[in-house]
Amino acid sequence: PPRTAGSIMTTEFVSVPDDWTVEQTLSHIRVVERSRETVYAIYVLAEDGTLSTVVTLRRLVTGEPGASILSVASKEGIVCASPLMSQEDVARLIRKHDLLALPVVDDHSHILGIVTVDDVIDTMIADTTEDAHKFGGMEALGKPYMTIGFPDMIRKRAGWLAALFLGEMLTASAMQHFEGELEKAVVLTLFIPLIMSSGGNSGSQATSLIIRALALGELKLSDWWRVLLREIPTGLTLGCILGAIGFLRLTVWQQAGFYDYGEHWLLVGATVFAALVGIVTFGSLAGSMLPFVLQRLRLDPASASAPFVATLVVVSGLVIYFSVALVILSGTLL
């Protein structure tokens, strides 16, 4: 099946019987090297055809010509893949053991083919490109940018863009709900871009980190609670940092006379600080949990693209911002 070791393996490999000598093996390589994918790994087969061991070309050329091929074989165990192993797991094995090729064997240890490191790189580049397109909030192009047709380009981009636009419409709904508060305290509107971007950025950061960790096998679906416990203090700390910067900026502008935020400017600053703490924390939690939800639903976590998370957090951020303002500014500006 696609995306498995069997789908990307080649049958053009060098194999020799385990009763051959080093000299016989080298002579065989000279004959077949042009028709083989790689000659840097020689696969030694037992009498019954099963894979016995692997010899690297470096070890082979340092061996005595009359010595048995087994005398220069690796003493370590053989690292193999099954034909149905995912290409991501194949890439991890090759990276972990610094291999140039990985043998693919059946249930009876008969070698079916090999997956070379360049095949894995080609496959992973294609996967990474696809994920990068999804992170940008669109379908994967499937072709180089300059070769894809105009209708296909529109079709790939319009669907997600329209979905995100519909999501952003909820922003207008949220602002309409707090129309009265905006009329009473117009100064709050000055910080809406700040609030929206900070929440979206924190969510995008968390999403990117978790999606990559899931792709590399650093996290499993069952680790969601560990990520949750880690993101709560992270979000609170980041929110406090951004809130302090926002409060400092407001104070400097007020004291320096760049802008007058009114007699209750300290309360406005406190609103901005508290809102940023809440929004950045929520953004971090939403951005880190969404990939787990999608994976649990058997969907591609890369679909939790940064724009999608940003849209979710922006709408929620407005609700948090005005709710905090109602609590802090009630009886003064509101």
What does this structure look like?
With 334 residues, the protein is mainly alpha-helical. It is 59% helix and 8% strand. The chain contains eleven helices and five strands; from the N terminus they run αβαββααββααααααα. It has a three-stranded mixed beta sheet with strand order 1-2-3. Helix 4 crosses helix 5. The longest helix is centred in the last third of the chain and has 33 residues. The radius of gyration is 29 Å and the shape is elongated. The N and C termini lie far apart (63 Å). The mean pLDDT is 87.
- Main pleated-sheet profile: 3 strands, mixed
List how many beta strands DSSP finds.
5
Beta strand %: 5-15%
- Structural class, please? mainly alpha
Could you name the key traits of this structure?
single chain; 334 residues; mainly alpha; three-stranded mixed β-sheet; 11 helices
Short account of what is shown:
This protein is mostly helical. It has helices at residues 5-8, 22-32, 57-61, 87-97, 117-135, 150-177, 179-184, 192-215, 224-256, 265-296, 306-329; strands at 14-17, 41-45, 51-56, 101-105, 111-116.
Give the topology.
Blueprint: H1 5-8, E1 14-17, H2 22-32, E2 41-45, E3 51-56, H3 57-61, H4 87-97, E4 101-105, E5 111-116, H5 117-135, H6 150-177, H7 179-184, H8 192-215, H9 224-256, H10 265-296, H11 306-329
Parallel strand pairs: 1-2
Antiparallel strand pairs: 2-3, 4-5
